[in-house]
Design a protein that fits this description.
By secondary structure, the chain is mainly α. The chain has helices spanning 10-20, 26-32, 38-52, 55-67, 72-78, 91-102, 109-119, 121-151, 161-184. It is globular and about 45 Å long.
């Protein structure tokens, strides 16, 4: 996995945060219904992280996958963009997760329809919520990692100090604001 494939501005980070927390209960609802397993959620997180290139998230989700018993070869394949080695039932979700990350949430409505047709609304909404949460995590992790590298004397190409510091420090305030907004303003996917 190439680190820092994507760099997020503070404005993009805020948009990602508010999208991530628009429908906070969808993932919990899908998990409670048994529609989104911990394994599927972790696969989604690794697939999205591969597209964005967040080293911090890759480390955390790889560690989690190993603890869950996922084979190192399977993790490496996911972190290099492949998922044909996994359960075929996950293919549509993982392909959509990669698409969503590649287009920075400006996803194709036909692709989303394929997800809902394949899984039904509850599972599809859970998949979308997992994707949006890891996009938020990646945006934060990339900025925090870039700031750490800058402090260590190894600046990340195309990353701006103002975005790194704003995301890393103010990101902790954006998250609760986005969550509160998500609880009171219902949005459709």
């Amino acid at each position: 996995m190439e680190c820092n494939k994507r760099i997020f501005t503070f404005k993009e980070f805020c948009k990602t945060a508010f999208i991530a927390f628009e429908r906070p209960g969808d993932l919990m609802c899908a998990k409670k219904a048994g529609e989104v397993t911990k394994t599927l959620q972790n696969h989604i997180m690794l697939a999205v992280t591969e597209v964005n290139g967040c080293a911090l998230c890759a480390y955390a989700h790889t560690k989690n996958a190993l603890i869950m018993g996922m084979a190192e070869a399977d993790i490496e394949k996911l972190l290099s963009g492949g998922f044909d080695h996994l359960d075929a039932d996950e293919a549509v979700a993982l392909a959509f997760a990669q698409h969503y990350a590649e287009v920075r949430s400006a996803y194709d409505k036909k692709a989303w329809r394929r997800v809902t047709d394949t899984y039904g609304q509850v599972k599809a909404d859970g998949v979308m919520a997992a994707i949006r949460m890891i996009m938020f995590g990646n945006a934060y992790g990339i900025a925090a990692g870039a700031l750490w590298r800058r402090i260590s004397g190894r600046r990340v190409k195309n990353s701006r100090f103002t975005d790194e510091i704003l995301i890393t420090l103010l990101g902790l305030l954006v998250m609760p604001a986005a969550l509160v907004r998500g609880l009171f303003v219902k949005k459709s996917i």
